[in-house]
Request: fold
Amino acid sequence: MTVRTPGLVAASLLAAGTALAEGHYTPAPLLGERAASLAGAFTAVADEPTAAWYNPAGLVALPGSVLGGSLDLYELSFYRRADAVRLGDEGQPLEARQLATVPSAFGVAWLLGEDRDQAVAMSLLVPESETLSAAVAAEGTDASVVREVEITDQTWLAGPSYALRLAPGLSVGASLFYELRRRRESDRLRTAAGGAPEAPAALRLESADYDAARGALVAVAGARWATGPWALGLTLYPPTPTLHDALHIYRSSGASPGPEAPAGLYLRQTFDTGWEVRTPWRLHAGVAWRGGAWLVSADVRGQTGGDAFATYAPPEESGLPARTIRPRPIVNGALGAELVLNEDLAVRAGAYTRFAGLEHPDGDDPAAPEVVDQMGAAFGFTKRDGATTMTVGLGYTYASGASPGLRQVVGDDGRARLVGEADAVRRHALRFSLGGSYAF
Reply:
């Protein structure tokens, strides 16, 4: 009996490019320790260097020139995708534990002018840097399947910001970031007929390796108005162009009539393919209130739907189909609070939602994007010592959604097939981080 895997690599390659396009922008990353422990409800607060992302108009509200940074000491994630491999009627989930060390935000801001009514800043932001490795196996009486996946995702944003105070309490600002996203993925699938994977009667291997990169310009424009205990903020993220992108694909396949390794039967090909990406319009509005020792802030974040977010036209020799990903209109929110216990110590907490801004995968499309909705909570405290502050933060995120279901199924006839059927995805993540700043 021979086990065949038609279409696996082609669908895997398209899924890799889809994931890169899907992750081209980060709608609401938690950057900076004070902002993160307020769950990102920072559009109206915007009084630390990460205002360059949340609302650059807030840079002129800094108490002075500031050098700041934050570092995620670790993020521990538990990922589960149902029925990643199925053999007959039996399905096995793909489960992974991930431990990541992630630098999240570094920036420096200077106040200029005699009245300090202008500010400039330079920022380096890392909203995403993670590696996930997992394996899953399924065995039956006539066949067995082993699948191993390793994914590395990294995103960097770097660029300048400028803010100007137009009138007492009223300021505007803008930032321009260069975004570089890198995704590497390795997918190995081994199917065997007539025995266990270590001693099969017939063996087939499929593998695909991807190295994808995308560069883009990300613009941010903001306004902030503060009067008495109230502050209002508005931040616009317009559609921004892709400067360059490439998807390098290396794939191989082999077959053997016996248990020995199928030496010399591999095919290795490389494709450079590209996605046309256009991010949707996004608008964040925030309000903050200060009263005595309390600060309460809230954000509402909206995104438009409409035209295609990403379109894909692969070269003819790749054998991959064209496809389009569309955004959907969404509204997310964040709520945070801060309590100043004394002049040197403050505690804060918050909660947020982050619903996916793309269409959910179709059950019969094995190369649709993985769409996951998130909600989370954060807590942190800050200790001040003169011009220096130190912040410790904790966070929890729960995510659920649907994967395109790039599922390998081995039927009773020994043929391995891809089934386009959306799988449920669950993820829990715990985050511990440190941050600090120095005013000069």
Q: What stands out?
A: The radius of gyration is 24 Å.
